[in-house]
Write the structure tokens for this entry.
Amino acid sequence: MDILKGISIRRTPQSRPATTGQVRNSAGGYAFALDDAARLRRFLILGVDGGTYYTDAQTLALENTEVLRRLAADDPQGLVTTITEVSLSGAAPKQNPALFALAYATSVPEARDAALAALPKVARTGTHLFTFATYVEQFRGWGRGLRRAVGSWYTARDADALAYQAVKYRQRDGWTHRDLLRLAHPKVDDPALRATLDWIAHGTVGEETPTLIEGFVKAREADATRTDAAATWARIVCDYHLTWEMLPDAALTRPEVWEALLDVGVPLTALMRQLPRLTRLGLLPAMGGRTDEIAGQLTDAARLRAARVHPVSLLVAQRTYASGFSRRGKASWTSTTKVADALDAAFYAPSAPSSPQASAPCSPWTSPAPWACPSPAWP
């Protein structure tokens, strides 16, 4: 056998580097190395929930944490800026990686101030804030700067906006708004905002308490055993514009209540999650009902962009709804073809160019590198 025939500069096996710029990968082969900035964006968008073909999720998570450590030391402002941009752009199907990275950045002195200042931009809802609180305790304690930043998350909102967060996102991962307020101790002068914080911390309702909280309390106190309970809940929904998360579980089993919720308006992401329930309750029949209305909302490209609905979320919703059963529970339903088709059409819905030069927008499901898109398809 002629050993020399195995040496070539035109054909190189994967087990050897083709150029000096390649590094060994997890599969034992060689590939071109990504710099830390590119690896950060990949982590923020793709996360580490499922690992890869050759690396388990735990190992991948540790590698990405090491990337965060290097960037926090070498380019702290760039790290926080990238976290904020990816979070606000809607490029990632989940916010957890961005919240994790921001929590890590708050533990690094060089990045701490910028990370705490970015908290309200990345943690936009109560659920985001609770997830951030869980992550941040993995890296640091509750110092003065962190308490001030969390307190500002509450006091920077007006009373009505804070009431919405308080009654819609009440708890997550063992955290409640009351827990965070006890840590942050925010001080406010506005009477309505102070009344809202008092209700969160102590459950007291006063003259300055926002009407949304009043409606929430009425819905919770309604007697579910009365024959007119559904009509009472529906009236409260219409009067106070409550969302489905603000209602007791018994109310969510009544078609009349969901009719009222749809009349008030269900946010698009929540609507996608509730399609199986609406179908079981008979609100989405093959003909009539609310089917055409819901299908129209699901295929409205402007609504999809405004709600930051990620294509992956649409794909999951379509596959789940069309299957007719839940993979996490025992619920089942007979899917409505028009609704399933609307979800499918929403997945392929075109995105409007963000600038005159962007005649062919970079699409997360057609681009080979969605994190490299200059303008995300779903801002």
Q: What stands out?
A: Residues 222-265 form one domain.
